[in-house]
Amino acid sequence: MHVDGTPQHVNRQPVALVREEWRVVDRWWTEEPVSRRYFDVVLQSGENAVVFRDEERACWFTQRGA
Questions:
Q1: What DSSP state is assigned to residue 46?
Q2: Residue-wise pLDDT tens digits, 7-35
Q3: Which of 29, 37, 50, 64 has the fewest CB atoms within 10 Å distance of its CB?
Q4: Where are the chain's structural domains?
């Protein structure tokens, strides 16, 4: 992860470009809130991927792609 929080690698492949970024904050009123930071990225191989960081659990997930 870069200093600004963007991913450097996805599934061991370098990220060439972050095309889009957005946040989802939901269910804040429950015992299981959702707080995620999503990134639509292009990998150095040319593949597209959407990944997100679950800010409640402090871990990364690949939603689709590489």
A1: S
A2: 998 988 999 999 999 999 998 898 888 99
A3: 29
A4: 9-65
